[in-house]
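re: the backbone from monday

yeah here it is again, tokenized this time
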């Protein structure tokens, strides 16, 4: 029998609001930090299927979340496409060679790098109860491309935005390559046991409206169409962080089943402007969860009320911070679990 999260993503509204948190498996948990110390670097942990499965399960055991989100990283796609990937301590991911000219054709694909991820899914799904939904994910093409072009993260994605303006044909070729790899990757996750997937477009907010249409909406729409053709029963959550007023167009035009809303969006506005009855996910500010106190409870109530007339998955507006007190997460879970509208 499908769990409440999966049913909600399929458009059914029940008495309770399901919840999971982006980055719920991570550094705020002592059990994660202990395992990370044993395994060494982040990538070593992510590619160790047994360890990655354990990390995926840790927050479900502790908090009873309705979804288990695969422990991995969006940059496994460029790694599988042939770029070198490593993580610099305290500085984040690095990819080489940087594709400043968009010329990805010189890369040699290494698809077997994704095999440990599929095994993580298999191990995790086997360990979960049927009431808990197994969530997979991938980065959306625009966000993945920003890392591939610059070779690392950046504040304004300037190198990638400039390339997209300067040589849209070359950049479009890179986007299409990422699309193809992403579709294959998500189908592989689904076949291993994933029941719903999320497309993370973490840097969607850096684009002008016409560029957003070209490099966010259009590529995600093509990915969703191919997934629906191949695996029609699997819900797709689209999360275009920072999209603001462009969010309703994204929801209408990409074909996603549910849309994630970041913390900068007024939930009342989102409830009014998004397509009627579309499941919505979000949108508590991760920093408010860290801060806690009376304001946290008030905001949780506001979000729950705003989305009470449609299917709603409670989540954060982005990933949980590493210094978030566990007591604050416990209080959040208790409040959402106690909500009856």
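seq for it, each position gets an aa:
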């Amino acid at each position: 029998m499908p769990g409440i999260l999966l049913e909600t993503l399929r458009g059914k509204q029940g008495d309770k609001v399901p919840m999971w948190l982006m980055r719920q498996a991570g550094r705020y948990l002592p059990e994660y930090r202990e395992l990370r110390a044993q395994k060494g670097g982040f990538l070593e942990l992510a590619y160790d299927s047994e360890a990655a499965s354990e990390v995926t399960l840790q927050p479900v055991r502790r908090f009873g979340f309705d979804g288990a989100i695969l422990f991995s990283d969006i940059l496994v796609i460029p790694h599988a496409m042939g770029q070198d990937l490593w993580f610099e301590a305290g500085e984040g991911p690095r990819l080489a060679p940087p594709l400043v000219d968009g010329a990805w054709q010189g890369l040699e694909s290494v698809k077997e790098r994704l095999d440990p991820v599929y095994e993580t899914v298999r191990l995790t799904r086997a360990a979960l109860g049927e009431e808990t939904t197994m969530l997979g994910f991938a980065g959306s093409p625009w966000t993945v491309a920003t890392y591939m072009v610059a070779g690392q993260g950046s504040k304004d994605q300037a190198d990638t935005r400039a390339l997209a303006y300067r040589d849209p044909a070359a950049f479009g070729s890179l986007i299409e390559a990422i699309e193809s790899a992403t579709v294959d990757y998500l189908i592989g996750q689904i076949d291993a046991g994933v029941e719903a997937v999320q497309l993370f477009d973490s840097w969607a907010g850096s684009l002008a409206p016409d560029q957003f249409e070209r490099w966010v909406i259009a590529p995600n729409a093509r990915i969703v169409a191919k997934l629906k053709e191949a695996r029609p029963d699997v819900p797709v959550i689209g999360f275009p962080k920072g999209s603001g007023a462009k969010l309703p167009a994204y929801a209408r035009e990409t074909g996603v089943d549910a849309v994630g809303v970041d913390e900068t969006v007024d939930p009342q506005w989102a409830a009014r402007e998004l397509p009627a009855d579309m499941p919505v996910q979000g949108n508590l500010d991760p920093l408010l969860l860290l801060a806690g106190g009376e304001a946290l409870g008030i905001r949780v109530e506001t979000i729950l009320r705003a989305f009470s007339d449609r299917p709603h998955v409670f989540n954060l507006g982005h990933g949980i911070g590493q210094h978030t007190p566990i007591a604050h997460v416990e209080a959040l879970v208790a409040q959402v679990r106690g909500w009856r509208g």
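Residues 4-264 form a domain with the TIM Barrel fold (CATH 3.20.20.210). Residues 204 and 212 are 7 Å apart (CA to CA).
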